[in-house]
Design brief:
Elements: E1 3-9, H1 15-24, E2 27-31, H2 33-41, E3 47-48, H3 49-53, H4 66-73, E4 78-84, H5 96-100, H6 106-116, E5 122-124, H7 127-138, H8 144-169, E6 184-188, E7 200-203, E8 211-215, H9 221-235, E9 240-246, E10 249-256, H10 259-269, H11 271-274, E11 278-281, H12 287-293, E12 300-303, H13 308-314, E13 321-325, E14 333-338, E15 341-346, E16 356-357, H14 365-378, E17 386-390, E18 393-398, H15 404-415, E19 423-426, H16 434-441, E20 446-449, H17 456-466, E21 469-472
Parallel strand pairs: 1-2, 1-4, 2-3, 4-5, 11-12, 12-13, 19-20, 20-21
Antiparallel strand pairs: 6-7, 8-13, 9-10, 9-11, 14-15, 16-21, 17-18, 17-19
Amino acid sequence: MNKKALISVADKSGIIELAQGLKELGYEIIATGGTHKLLMENNIPAIKISDYTGGTESERVKTLSQRIAREILETGEISIVVCNLYPFFNQEGKTLDEMIEFIDIGGVTLIRAGAKNYKKVGVVFHPKQYGDLIIALKEQRFDEEYRLNLARKAFDYIAWYDAIIAQYFNPDFSKRDYFSFGAELFIPMRYGENPHQNAGFYLNPLLKRHFEVLGGKELSYNNLLDAEIALGAAMDFEENACAIIKHQTPCGVAIGDTLSEAYERAYMADSLSAFGGIVGLNRVVDAQTAEAISKVFYEVIVAPDYQPEALEILRTKKNLRIVKISPELLPKMNFKSVFGGILVQDADTKDFTEWKVVTNREPSKYEAEALKFAWKVVKWVRSNAIVIANKGRTVGIGGGQTSRVGAVEIAVKNAGVQANGAVLASDAFFPFRDGVDAAAKGKITAIIQPGGSKRDEEVIQACNEYDIAMVFTGYRHFRH
């Protein structure tokens, strides 16, 4: 029985070399229209699939036939399948009707059939697999174990492809009964959160164009976790804004008349903790801002873009990772793995349109602006979270605490004398008045919180005793 290989590829990279290698090993090659044409042009004999099956190729139907299916799935007469799929993920700006034409049917069927019958058939789909396939055939390593490994990769490939299509047709995960996430390895990593943990960054190929590393060392797992918060916290503001993050917690967040002023104010909010952090900015980075950033050791800077002069300055810091990320990549959904499953929720993008003054004294104009600022920041701090702020910058942050009063005490301590006359934001309600008592010791003058505690009246009374203005937003900002 002649050895047979079926080749049907959208990406024709490396296919000439592969086909030549198969020919030299005595394989009879069957190919679909475009692939067949390319092989014949390069003097590689091949049978056109329509001639092989006795059918005719149409625009949508090329490889689907009973004979092909039988020889792959049942008899294994076609013992090698080389197939990759229409590039559904590289079709930006096309209409739904146009996108439908890039949904591969026959190719998925070929790959699935070959992978299912791995005991007789080997399937490859990526040019990087071709060289090893030829070597395995020559060295007689094309055994069942080898083919099983190919099958595993093939099933991953078609699952990834279908998941991308599913996400395109229904991007709102909250309206889906079945969960799938189409992503491919975008950044290999040496390790994860700790050196003994394996890791990698996977990204939907539709989004690759929004992410670019412009300089510095390889990004790590922890870098990316912090970078997302740094950019997200900065992008929450319409004004020039900067957020400096460490261990997924803000060290300092500030706004300014210029981007460089916003950075300087964020840095001075907690210059000690900022060392070795991640800087997020919400504007195109200019030379003045880059010059200021370059004076301090940071792991990463992330922004929507950079002026050429700014890049030149930042690249003098050889280890500084310079990342350009479109705000479009900020998540609209959050995912967490739990007990072998996945929790899915909308990203926390809510911002208040109004609040309710619940104390005898209303916030002054200055306090009101500071409260709005602090409320934007507190949602980026792990619960229980407290943010103390004044004049468009944080001065004290207490987060990740198991008691709210403990978070207040840490924030007041971190703020020091700057707490005097500042305002305070709490991500959830005060269960007791002790949080207000702790704030009053730091001479806080106004508080913003969701409200909703059984002891709200007790908390309000405490504020009135200290002449602290307090407003309720009606919703919380838990972060875990």
